[in-house]
Amino acid sequence: MRLLAPSWLPSRLAVCLSVALMLLGVGSASAHVKWFCAYDVAGQPRGLEQVLCAEFEWLVGLSLVCLMAGCLMEGTPLGTYLLNALDRVTARLRADTTLLVRATLGFFFVSLWNLGGIILTPELKTDLSWIPWLQLGIATMLIWKQTLPLAALGIVFLFGFATWNYGAFHLADYPVFLGIAAYLTLVSFDRTLFGLRPLDVVRLSAAVTLMWASVEKWAYPHWTDPLLAAKPEMTMGFSNELFMNAAGVIEFTLAFALIWTPLVRRMSAIILTAVFVSAVFEFGKVDAIGHSGIIVVLLGIAADDARVAVRARSTMLVPAYYGAALATFLVIYYTSHAVLYATISGMPLI
Predict the structure, then answer these.
(1) Burial class, 61, CB count within 10 angstroms (exposed 0-12 / middle 13-18 / buried 19+)
(2) At 124, which helix (H) or strand (E)?
(3) Chain segment 320-332, per-residue pLDDT in tens
(4) Rounded-to-integer distance, Cα 306 and Cα 230, Å
């Protein structure tokens, strides 16, 4: 029998409690639902009037409090101490970030070659026999620094090929692959992109990827219903709706934190890494292969020792920038879906 939140627990306290519990258990919800459950990208998403409910607003408010608290701490001696401690602990990882990224991507593409019939992610299927061999070729190009641009070109080609077959809206789930391709190219030529370091470029692409994925949790919470029915302990006694709302808000908040100040983004990267790794124990080999690329990127972000001066306005601007990011992703997601699937015919549908 499923546990239920006590009826006497005030609704606002229940929401706060769910967020605290989700920080420990959201890993199970971070398995990409399209890899394990039936889905319909062209289906009607949940209405915004249902998404923007009172529970959602309280979850967002609590997330903002946590973000602002992190920013306030960053400008204190405690924040400096934590940054220095992170620098010491991650020194070796920082020195070998590029090597680790290349090795992990090599594992990823060799695994895809071994599995066969997959374009970049488990749900993107293909019958073309040359795709696995291209992926093996990409893995080979990762061995030498001089051939990294060829590996990047292969990744961009696969992303474009998948877009052609599955549609732009579906591949909007995975801009991190384009960020990885840019990272490999910039590293090979020892260049920056308009002043952005290679790690900054892939960090931004990871943030966009995760923020988009969080909106999908709000728009299509029912996709996860079979997963939650098979593993009811994941919800920790709360309703599926509240669980998915909380999972989406936490993922969006942690993704937004990746574009914020150094301590905030490094702590976010550590939490997200723990979340994705815990999901591997729950969902196995497919999840380990599919998320390996973003996990190694998050490790690189956690080890990054770049510092910027943190001012009081960094804290004061959190609500404005967070609200703008949330509104932007909701509008783009719902508007692009309406345009692509309501008014354009002939789009490839799943």
Answers:
(1) middle
(2) strand 121-125
(3) 999 999 999 999 9
(4) 43
Distance, CA of 52 to CA of 62 (rounded, Å): 15
Contacts of 174 (CB under 8 A, 6+ apart): 120, 121, 159, 209
Tell me how far apart the alpha carbons of residues 304 and 26 are, in angstroms, rounded to a whole number: 25
- The predicted-structure confidence for 199-251, as pLDDT tens digits, reads as follows 999 999 999 999 999 999 898 888 887 777 777 777 676 777 778 888 889 89
* Phi-psi domain of 117 (left: phi exceeds 0; alpha: psi -120 through 50; beta: other): left
The pair of three-digit structure tokens given for residue 253, joined into one six-digit string: 């908040």
- What is the sign of the dihedral through the CA atoms of 189, 191, 194 and 200? positive
The token duo for 60 is 């967002």
Residue keyed to tokens 């989406």: 248
Task: Report the alpha-carbon distance of residue 178 to residue 11 in Å, rounded.
Answer: 42
| Planar angle of CA 151, 181, 109, nearest 5 degrees | 50
- Alpha-carbon distance of 191 to 178, in angstroms, equals 17
